[in-house]
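PT: before anyone asks, these are the final sequences, not the draft ones from last week. 952 residues across everything. Please model them as a single complex and drop the result in this thread when it's through.
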Amino acid sequence: MTPLLDVRDLIVDFPTRRGVLRAIDRVSFDIAPGEVLGFVGESGAGKSLTGAAIVGLLTWPGRIAGGSVHLTGERIDTLRPDRMRRIRGRRIGTIFQDPLTTLNPLLRIGHQLTETMLTHLDLTATEARRRAVVWLERVGIPDAPRRIESWPHEFSGGQRQRVVIALALCAEPDLVIADEPTTALDVSVQAQIITLLKTLTRENGTAVMLITHDMGVIAETADRVAVMYAGRIAEIGPVAAVIRHPAHPYTDGLMGSIPTVKHKAERLRQIDGSMPRLDAIPAGCAFHPRCARAFDRCLIDRPGLLAAGATQAACWLHAPEAPHG
Amino acid sequence: MFAFAASRLLQAIPVLLTVGLISFALFAFVGDPVTILLGQDHTEAQRLEMVHRLGLDQPFFIQFAYYIWAALHGEFGISYRLAQPVSRLIAERLPATLELASAASILAIAIGVPMGVYTGIHRERWSSRLFMAVSLIGVSLPAFLVGILLILLFAVSLEWLPSFGRGTVVPLTSWWTTGFATWSGVRALILPAVTLGLFQMTLILRLVRAEMLEVLRTDYIRFARARGLTDRSIHFGHALKNTLVPVITIIGLQFGGLVAFSLVTETVFQWPGMGLLLVQSVAVADIPVMSACLLLIALVFLTINLIVDLLYFVVDPRLRASRDP
Amino acid sequence: MSGRAFLDSDVVHAFRQSPAAIASAFVALVLILSGVLAPWLAPHDPTDLATLSLLDSFKPPWPAAKAEWVNLFGTDSQGRDMLSAIMYGMRVSLLVGFCSVAIAVTLGILIGLTAGYLGGAPDTILMRIADVQLTFPAILTALMINGIAGAALPRTMRDSMQVPVIILSIGISLWPGIARTVRGSTLVERDKEYVLAARVIGATSWRIMLRHVLPNVLGPVLVLATLGLGLAVLTEATLSFLGVGLPPTRPSLGTLIRYGNDFLFSGQWWVTIFPGITLVLMVLSINLLGDWLRDALNPRLR
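LR: through. Structure below.
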């Protein structure tokens, strides 16, 4: 079966005065219809940029310098801007991080909803309006018929993110890219928003690319997870496998830094050092300076994704001839 | 909103009284109105009679009260230079200035706003760079030189347009004469309106451009793009509206500039308006006209400020919420 | 920014890196020098009526047919050499410009220090005046002050007092910007420990303030003064053009443009265009220099 989204060897460059910075380096993954693929990693690892590159919204001077993006078999990274615009919103929805800044403060909620639907769907204005009310109800805004006339500033942060979700889903896309959808929210409403997102996408059969740095959210939401490090995918696989049997030393370190109920007494482990800056990514495996298990090959060759049990990891430890230990 | 407008009106009263005091002080104490009105040769009896007639033998505050009372009835005394009531002089000149100023403002806004939007959206195009370079010249050229150059080109060399006066005017009421009704009146308006509007236009252009660049970087514009809205809707429906608040502020603040430049423009083109009247009065120290102009300018200033404040309410729903319970 | 810092190598270095700054400084310097040194450099003395001959009137600028290269920019209605008239005119414009900026800087520093140091009601009142005045263009303020002074002075003194009156009215129209900068810096310094310490030991903190605040505001004030010079020259030219500025006996660039304007229709365009170009060049180069200086002294802006 053709995957819904197929990303192959995606490269994103930022040309600067001092040279070209490679922010995303040969990232490959796919998402099946209805699947939830989580993306984790430190800030600057390239999660959000991957999302932006897929929908063609890289900020200048960033550009796709290589690879391909296919949506249900159709190549979309080379589409003309106007064709790409029809895909955004209609085929791929996007949810941004901060609901306080993603809604236009000078336009009513109802207007923003109906405008989005009328742009993509063949509806009458009345029908769009009726659906806007339904959408507000579905995302759990009480008194929807009246609230549709409200301005963004009249909603709380959590409510605004609900509206943002309605806006991202209202043209019934096949895929939603949710870029840190709960990071800017109160801890108390984070879980509600994640549950809402999960319920709505399951009802509609929408696939989700869930970008977050919160492993906990991934664990309870995603089917599979991709771990990013320095613009590359370090490990990708089913959530349970990645969490229980991390195959990449970096993933292992990440899991070690998550508190669990079982090992309360144990001190949380921490990975020494920090992720390299884009202009100083080491040769070979980008993680090797911080890796306790690095050996000579890691310094020279860059590893591709290798099968490692139930997951795939970009680590020479899983090469057939690697020293096991 | 009405409560707010009323409170702003109340705040304006002390300002007006202060300006009134200054203009009264000018009127009553600067120079020697008796000598000016009677000439050098007069008897002591004539002098006393004149002092009494002008009310100069009354206590200060009585005189001030009389002055304000008279001003409220549109009486500002007699022009020293023209020996006519100041109110009549102003009534004769006001239409010319209002027509010139409104033509210039409409020109400035009608050209400045679209060009600002254009150069903000397509900032890399050579046409945008050309507009910006031309606007830099527009900002740097003194208004009277602009006028002289326009006269040299369009009146002297090409002989297309007249270089002075209002052309044929048609009386609308007993004192309001309009130049809009005849072809010669419209032709006469072109060069002065361009001269007066040029600086404002370049200012608006640069401001709208800067604000557009700012707004186009915001999250809500990114989100609008991510929803696949059309460029047209993003630029004009979403971005332009958000640039309006600062633009309205500057246009309002620039009213002072409009007054100052109308002095110059009216002098260059011998336009029979308030500006020319004020300049001619300053040249011969015609105090009653000067003090009346001072009051009038302050009054128009406060009115414009009030209109600007009210426009904020129309544009920005957040203000309506916070100030109007 | 400390007092020494604005002259240190950073700014000098930045200056050498910027072609626009070098070009505008060069143009400004040439114009200022040729204005200041006009009595020694100019080919003719336009104030010396004895050397004028009506036979020389309205010679077109070189290289037109009847022109002599001696009168590079042509001659005016009385046979005056335009180049010399422009050089003498610049001299007057610059005199008014520099003097009014000096007045504005003095007023601005004094008022800014007073407002910032005293705080409370004096601060509120002084800054309120500054705010109100800032909303009016300098030209309008100068025009009004000029008109009031004209009315207040006895008729016989008006001509002789015209230059000081213009200088004063332009100077007064420019003070608010400087005062606000100085006030802001004073507020920062006022609560620093050395000022409090000085007060405790009974020293007059006024002098201490002056000594410590001045070096801090020197950079911004220099920028405002440079931009103010451009504005002052322009304001004077505009007032003179309107006929309420300098008397015909001391023609500035604005006066020259005003008189030249009368001959626009008879074809003698050079009588008004050359002083106009000179004025634009002068104001533009001073403004560009001021803009550059602002960026160089404060890298955070822009």
